[in-house]
Amino acid sequence: MHPTNPTRRIAPHRRYAKKFLTLPDELLTKISDNVALEDLPNFRLTCKTLANISAKHFGEKRLAHRRFIFTEYSIRGLVDMTAHPVFGPRVKSIINITDNAKAMEVLLHWATRITIGTFDDIQLGLQKKARHLRGYGSGREIKDLPFVRMIPLPKVSLQIIRDASRFITFFPERLVLNLRSEGTDIDTENALCDFMLAGNGQLRPTVDAIIIARYTYIAILPSQGCLTLRRKETTAQDLPEPVYCGVSLDVFDPPMRNAILSAPFRRLNLRSCKIEIRELVMVLQAFAATLQVVDMADVHFWIQDKSQAGRCVRPVLCCLRDELRLRKLILNDIRAMHIDYGDGIIIAKDRTWHSQQTIRQVLDVFVEHDMYAWDFSWKDDSGDENEDGGEVEAGHEDEDEGEAENEKDEGDGGWSKYESILRRRAKKALALALAEP
Length: 437
Hints:
Protein name: F-box domain-containing protein
Order of helices and strands: HHHHEHEHEHEHEEEHEHEHEEEHHH
Oligomer: single chain
Number of strands: 12
Organism: Aureobasidium melanogenum
Structural class: alpha/beta
Shape: elongated
């Protein structure tokens, strides 16, 4: 006679799971260390102890960098995660946070060094009447988010972070502001100044900031003595082709701009952007006392007079030579640009110079010989490329000089030969400058 309630069979993996419980934690840790992440869920199903150990790896891979939206639901999840004994100590960055200071109190308890940032990728058409929700950062349509109602905030998110930080005396070491859709406004600017500026109006040496606008990226890193201006990395969906956006510190109001220009930056990086000559000279002069390295790559100098490119660029070269004491100068794919220049005129390509003396001697050649010392392709009177330009032999230099004077007035062919001679002369001067100790 069969029993009314037959004993339920235990699945084999359940029986074997009990054996896992008898293993010492050291062996379970070894197992967890050598199990692929995609296989960890299967092991966690069989053993709670192993699940707790593997959670460390899961947290490091999946929970180190989080983005939270401004909803009661998500903030509760943020508090729960930061209070977790395994996940809490592994949080490294949190994007967007409200005036709920509980999460930061817990992070302060763990003595965690994190990056706090704001981002703004909400679609403006979906904000409806919530005008003050800049920095909300949903990343998807609002109607699909798990909250009941949306309350407009009287302050921008950065101000709320600042207020919460003051309340618990917890100051982040780096701010990341992704303001690609609207850029900075007066409220965000004031909150940024509260974070980064000390009482004397100078940058705090321990607080860095990265500001990502629609097309530009500005990294203000006082802790490293470095300022970087470049075009923001884009994808094919953002732009059909690279856009050389102008970079300028004029995007900041006077307090922040003056603090940046008075900071003791030792390195200036310019990347994949265009910049006005006047703006660049102003920045270089502001950092003249402390700047040691200037690194420019894929930078376009925008000039006003297309027939006087050398004269327009000369103020930058003179400033680098006369007002700075650089130990390293890197110029790679630097071009003079004008609306009628097409791809521009290459000033310097793959050039790196070390020591003050060498930099000064090389810039002397660039200033004295004007465009003939530049790296763009020249053509001699035969129409062939004249990249190297050859070297003018010492015994024929005076002869070439006299010939050049005679060729200047002999039509287009004469001018081409004259320019070829000046080019060779500049090449020789540059070689001598680099050869001198």
